[in-house]
Each structure stands twice: as C-alpha cells, then as structure tokens.
Design goal:
Radius of gyration: 23 Å
Structural class: alpha/beta
Order of helices and strands: HHEHEEHEEHHEHEEEHEH
CATH class of the largest domain: Alpha Beta
CATH topology of the largest domain: Rossmann fold
Shape: elongated
CATH architecture of the largest domain: 3-Layer(aba) Sandwich
CATH superfamily of the largest domain: von Willebrand factor, type A domain
Number of strands: 10
Mean pLDDT: 84
Length: 306
C-alpha cells in the first residue's frame, strides 16, 4: 500500500465530528496566523539560522563585526562576510496524550487546547515555508508524522491531535524527548506541549535542548491548582486509575494539596531555567493568545539585547 493510500485510509477512519473540529479550529486561528503570529514567528525564529554566503569587498556602511580579517590581511583590502537567512526551518510539535492530558475545565480541555496550539504553530510555520511535524506520546511514542510543508499537512497534524486515543495512560516524557532527538538530524524548533506531570525528565530534556531550540508549552488546568471545598469526594488518578476518598472540607487536606502543587511547579520552572528552555504557561481558562504574544515579545527583546 502506498503512503498516499494509507493516509486516505486513516483520514476515512476519522469521525466526521473530528473533521468538523479541525475546520472550526482553522477558521478560529486563521486571523491570528495571518495578522500577527506569522510576523512575530518570523522575527523570532528566522533570525536564529544564518548561513555563510560569500566574502565581498568592504563598502561604506558595512558593520565592522562582519569584516573577515584573515582574507583582508592576505589581500591588503577590507573584506566582509555576507550571511543569508536560512530559508527553511524544521518545527516539531511534541504533544502529551497521556491520561492527565485528557482532563480540563468546562471551557476547554487539555487535548482541545493542544490541538489549537498545534494548529497555530503548524499553520504559522507553513506560512513561513517551514517544515512541521508531530509526535504524540503517552508512556511510549504513540504516533509520529515526519516534518513536511503545506497547509493540508498542517491540518492533518491538528486532526491527528484531536483524534488521538492513547493506548496507555502513563507519561514518559523522557522517551519522547529522546525519540525526537533521533528523529531530527539538524537543529530544529521543538514545542513540547504538556502539563509536565511526569517522572524525572530533566536529563532527556537537557539532551534535546543541547541540539535544538526547545520551547515548553505548559497546559495549566485551573481545576488542578487548588482543591475545592465540596466535602467528601472520590478522586480518580487520571494515569494510574487509583481511587481515593478525600475530605475536601478539611483545611489541612487542602493545605497539603496546595503544597504538593507548589512542589511540582517550582522544580519544573527550575529545570527550564537551568536548561535555558523557554516556558509558555497557557491557562486553559484564558487561552494561549496572550501567552504566545508574551513569549514572542520576550524572545524578540532578548535577541535585540544580544
């Protein structure tokens, strides 16, 4: 069976509701992609890759720092190096589809938010003529779409995120990061979209960040930030399936829960700072637009200072 035939077979198996969701997400995100995100993405990422083009004779107005002193010394004239912006980049969107990623509030769940984020990133990369790919994982790599170009390809990635039904509930972010490192032969941009509720992943994330520009997109569910006072409640662990009865009216129980949440957040932020990984915190109740704009602005400001 050819690749095209296999792709048609997968598309035919996708429920019509998922395809309608893909269309709705495309329409909802089109304005952002066309108006602001494309330009911001270009200014932030396209400048990261410069390749050498040629050496030419110095002209008034050229920057001193571009002078090639070795060539100039040999020729007794000033010559400068000319660089051109890399025309194409590769973007990989790495999405957590584990049990904890399927939760969320009433307005938006984590999987829906991940799909919309994938749409914005994929369509923005496509508008800049970049390749974009997808990696879905739980406690194993569930699905991989190699980086390619084009609007249809970008929308396929959105469809695959929405239709994802992980075979496992657990999370192994380390295995996903290592797989991404093997998948990408050249320096690329990797957006890791997850709630980062996972066992130790810092070493694998460090290996990935050494070779690639890694951006951590943290999906933050408001219902997980604090324990509501609703009396005795039966809670189910989204990944292990374990049941527990908790008296949420007990202030001590709520205080311990708040301490556990802080114990997850602070080490995560420390890992990102230590590895030089940018964090984009996306509260589900507020959406990703302002968070992404702050990220682009921060990156642009940092690049200008350099």
């Amino acid at each position: 069976m050819t690749r095209a035939a296999a792709e048609r077979g997968r598309a035919a198996a996708v429920p019509p509701e998922v395809l309608r969701q893909v269309r709705r997400i495309e329409l909802r995100t089109r304005g952002l992609v066309n108006s602001s995100f494309t330009g911001e993405y270009h200014s932030v990422f396209k400048g990261m890759g410069m390749e050498f083009a040629e050496v030419r004779e110095y002209q008034p107005g050229d920057e001193v720092r571009t002078i090639d002193w070795n060539v100039s010394a040999r020729s007794q004239k000033l010559f400068v190096k000319r660089f051109v912006e890399e025309r194409e980049l590769t973007v990989l969107v790495l999405v957590d589809t584990s049990g904890s990623s399927r939760g969320g509030g009433l307005v938006q769940d984590k999987q829906g938010m991940a799909a919309e984020m994938a749409a914005v990133l994929a369509l923005t990369a496509t508008r800049n003529n970049d390749r974009v790919g997808l990696l879905l994982h739980s406690d194993r790599v569930e699905h991989v779409v190699p980086p390619r170009k084009g609007r249809r390809h970008a929308l396929r990635l959105v469809r695959d995120v929405l239709a994802a039904r992980a075979l496992q509930r657990g999370t192994d972010l380390s295995a996903a990061c290592d797989y991404a490192s093997r998948l990408l032969p050249h320096r690329s941009i990797v957006f890791v979209v997850s709630d980062f509720v996972a066992p130790a992943y810092d070493k694998a994330l460090a290996r990935l960040a050494r070779r690639h520009d890694v951006v951590a997109v943290v999906l933050d569910d408001p219902s997980e930030r604090e324990l509501p006072n609703v009396g005795v409640a039966r809670l189910v662990d989204a990944e292990s399936g374990a049941l527990a009865e908790v008296d949420t009216s007990d202030p001590t129980v709520r205080a311990r829960y708040a301490a556990l949440v802080r114990a997850e957040i602070e080490p995560r932020q420390g890992v990102f700072r230590r590895l030089g990984v940018d964090e984009v915190l996306v509260p589900l109740e507020l959406g990703y637009v302002d968070a992404m704009r702050r990220f682009f602005k921060t990156r642009e400001t940092r690049a200008r200072r350099r």
